[in-house]
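U., I forgot to send this yesterday:
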Amino acid sequence: MRCRGSAIGGNDVCFDYPSFATDQVARVRVAVYDIRGRIVAELTDESFQPGEHSVDWSGQDAAGRTAPSGEYFFVVHVDGKSVTRKALLLR
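Result:
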């Protein structure tokens, strides 16, 4: 598997928001955090088959409220390891 983003752990899980790819079945959790480290939204927390997958963030928090403009962090967790990507939300 060719990884354009960051490889995570021994699973060869690659993450390049909004896409990630796995070379084997893997439980993947993707969450959005604000600049203070508070969770804003959980985008997925489930097992994925090998292949390419993507997640979308609507720009809303877990309660459905519109998130304000600012810096956010997308964190992908796989098998006890994680990778983080910073994003800027502009309204």
